[in-house]
């Protein structure tokens, strides 16, 4: 299936899911607020926007103006017909910055202009903006989906304590939490306290078309890495595993697809390790096109929430090796015992070797089983309906709190 055909099929899946996702919620005006239009967070927002628009809601986006490049610009242009409230782009810094005050005022103005009923923040920065924006003229409910972010900082560090303190305070400004994994929900309870707000676990969902098998390319790399190029994704441990496997006499090649702040450092490290001829780098592109070009996908992450890249590879029945972090065990379900400890190049190398050496039929059956499990538990329909159900509960709670108490009638 070509990339364009897949996109059309996925759009069809979204439209089919929209009816089931409406949940009986009257039409709402929904603004999704997030920082970077890249990666799994962006995919989640795009899918939700399509679902919600198809279900009759007016949807708009607010995001950073400087990240994502041409790929994000094209994705936003493709999404434009679904966005009755349009796209607003403005400067947003990754870390706290005085310019956040200007962004908050701009978001508040935009929410007031469109009469937003729902401000849904995604990620740490989007969550701050959506919950603190001082909107006048309307009183939107404030929804928050963390997507990992600050919850992945190492517990006990100053940064973790500061961010969890902020989350504890922001919970008072949150009408509904829509955690994308049990893992992140547990981290919030453990380190920011019980939110004492309406809470839903809304797993990322994927469309029917993404379960179609992939036709392998003729000339394939042995290993694939697809994702952000930074140390927190565990790339150094993948390079260590590759070096160990090649030292055993396995002439393996690795294709790394992505971009990120450590791209140049990682490229230099590859050369310094003597792996220059074994590793190729390419920019971000359609995941299914990349999966067709490799035998085994490796996810060496040190921290994750509920990564789409794992869901998509599993749905496509593609052999993969992943670390036991974040919400990845939730994706693997009964097969979570196959996951590898993080920060262990030797264990990662051994797991890769097991998949490469596995009898082809046994490997096929194993990953077909994983695909069936994912299909049963991570549907786009469920994701859309669970989000709208969360909004509806928050709106009912708001209406109930605003309703004046009726004094009992005297006998």
Structure characteristics:
411 residues; alpha/beta; Rossmann fold; seven-stranded parallel β-sheet; 14% strand; globular; disordered N terminus
Characterization of this structure:
The protein is an alpha/beta fold. It has two domains: 11-19 and 26-205 and 379-398, 3-Layer(aba) Sandwich (Rossmann fold), CATH 3.40.50; 209-377, Glycogen Phosphorylase B (Rossmann fold, 3-Layer(aba) Sandwich). Helix content is 46%, strand content 14%. It is built from 15 helices and twelve strands. β4 (118-122), α5 and β5 form a beta-alpha-beta unit. α1 (3-21) runs parallel beside α15, α2 crosses α15 (380-402) and α8 (235-247) packs across α13. It is globular, with a radius of gyration of 22 Å.
């Amino acid at each position: 299936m070509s990339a364009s055909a897949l996109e059309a099929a996925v759009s069809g899946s979204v439209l089919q899911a929209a009816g089931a996702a409406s949940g009986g919620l009257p039409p709402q005006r929904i603004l999704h607020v997030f920082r970077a239009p890249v990666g799994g967070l962006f995919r989640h927002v795009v899918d939700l926007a399509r679902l919600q628009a198809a279900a009759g809601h007016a949807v708009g986006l607010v995001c950073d103006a400087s990240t994502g490049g041409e790929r994000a610009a094209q994705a936003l242009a493709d999404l434009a017909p679904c966005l009755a409230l349009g796209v607003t782009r403005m400067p947003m810094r990754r870390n706290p910055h005085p310019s956040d005050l200007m962004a908050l005022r701009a978001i508040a103005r935009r929410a007031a202009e469109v009469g937003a009923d729902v401000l849904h923040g995604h990620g740490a920065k989007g969550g701050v903006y959506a919950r603190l924006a001082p909107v006048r003229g309307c009183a939107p409910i404030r929804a928050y989906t963390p997507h990992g972010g600050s919850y992945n900082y190492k517990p006990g560090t100053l940064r973790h304590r500061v961010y969890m303190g902020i989350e504890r305070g922001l919970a008072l400004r949150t009408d509904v939490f829509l955690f994308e994994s049990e893992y992140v929900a547990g981290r919030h309870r453990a380190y920011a306290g019980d939110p004492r707000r309406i809470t839903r676990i809304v797993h990322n969902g994927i469309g029917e078309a993404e379960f179609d098998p992939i036709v392998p390319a003729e000339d394939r790399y042995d290993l694939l890495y697809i994702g952000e190029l930074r140390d927190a994704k565990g790339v150094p441990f993948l390079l260590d595993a590759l070096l160990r496997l090649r030292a055993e006499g396995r002439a393996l090649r690795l294709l790394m697809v992505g971009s990120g702040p450590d791209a140049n450092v990682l490229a230099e490290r590859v050369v310094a390790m003597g792996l220059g001829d074994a590793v190729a780098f390419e920019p971000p592109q359609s995941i299914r096109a990349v999966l067709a070009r490799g035998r085994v996908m490796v996810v060496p992450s040190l921290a994750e929430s509920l990564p789409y890249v794992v869901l998509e590879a599993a749905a496509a029945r593609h052999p993969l090796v992943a670390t036991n972090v974040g919400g990845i065990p939730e994706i693997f379900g009964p097969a979570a015992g196959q996951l590898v400890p993080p920060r262990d190049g030797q264990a990662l190398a051994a797991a890769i070797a097991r998949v490469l050496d596995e009898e082809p039929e046994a490997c096929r059956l194993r990953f077909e089983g994983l695909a069936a499990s994912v299909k049963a538990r991570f549907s786009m329909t469920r994701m859309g309906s669970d989000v709208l159900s969360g909004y509806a509960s928050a709106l009912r709670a708001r209406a109930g709190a605003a309703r004046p108490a009726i004094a009992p009638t005297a006998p």
